[in-house]
Amino acid sequence: MISVASSLGPMYTPPEVERLTDRFSRLSVSQGYNVFFGGVNVRLTNNGSSADLILDKSSGSGLVSRDKYYYGFFNAALKLPANFTSGVVVAFYLSNQNIFPHNHDELDFELLGYDKRRDWVLQTNIYGNGSVSTGREEKFYLWFDPTQDFHDYSILWNNHHILFLVDNVPVREVVHNTAISSVYPSKPMSIYVTIWDGSQWATRGGKYPVNYTYAPFVTSIKGVELEGCVSQQNASAASACARRSTSSLDPVDGEEFVKLSQQQMTGLDWARRKHMFYSYCQDTRRYKVLPPECTAT
């Protein structure tokens, strides 16, 4: 079904999918996060239930979760800056680079401002055990205008697979199999939300830098969900990470989280066929030999 037209052509209505965001409790921003950087450009709103993160000539800004998590479901509802946003990067991601600088893990949503008003690009990426020499990026055009309202960006990470979801529609699944096991994220991570200047690379390889005539650039966050296995110092994983409602180490290890439902598979296929325009697994110019997970059966 076609809804409205954009500068990129038709915008399609996504298929119905399960709402994973309805299965977990929502927190206020102040409950879940501390200021990461650019404190003067972080503004709590609605008594701390939401926040504005600002990029201007002086600084970007960001939040970091109060806890570190091993496995879980993590969500941020974001509303992105409007107008000319080339070079602006809004990121929602998991990382432990501050603790493991040489073998860190990372799961990324990066939203890249573009040189046309509505053409934000969604990029996902994963690193495991310091595998930064192999970029595993995939890029999508969105099926909505992300500057007009809040939209949910979610990451589900467990021992079975990693899911990247937008408004509960899966856009990428990374199955934990033998081919990718050596670079599958394996250590507790913090969750970050940031806005920053990516002029050197973000828009067409740095062709269009941030134009501060349009500053300040403001992204708003609410809808915080941080349902994971909280990592605590001086405690075993099993004792530190059990969710209150289950004895499992993995808080998203129920049957419904092991594999995609039929609805979710339909949504994943829809998103990738209609909206993905780049995958590292198709980039034979970049990789003469594709990473092993790209050719695994």
UniProtKB/TrEMBL annotation:
Please give the PROSITE patterns that the UniProt record associates with this protein.
GH16_2
Gene3D superfamilies to which the protein is assigned, alphabetical: 2.60.120.200
| Modification after translation, per record | Contains at least one intrachain disulfide bond essential for its enzymatic activity.
Domain GH16: from-to ranges:
6-221
Instruction: Give the domain of life.
Output: Eukaryota
Which sites are catalytic? Answer: 106 (nucleophile), 110 (proton donor)
Compartments in which it is found:
Secreted, Cell wall; Secreted, Extracellular space, Apoplast
Q: Name one GO cellular component term.
A: apoplast
Family annotation (SUPFAM superfamilies): Concanavalin A-like lectins/glucanases (SSF49899)
Q: Describe its function.
A: Catalyzes xyloglucan endohydrolysis (XEH) and/or endotransglycosylation (XET). Cleaves and religates xyloglucan polymers, an essential constituent of the primary cell wall, and thereby participates in cell wall construction of growing tissues.
Q: Can you tell me which family this protein belongs to?
A: Belongs to the glycosyl hydrolase 16 family.
User: What protein am I looking at?
Assistant: Xyloglucan endotransglucosylase/hydrolase
Q: Which organism is it from?
A: Nicotiana attenuata
Gene of this entry: XTH33_0
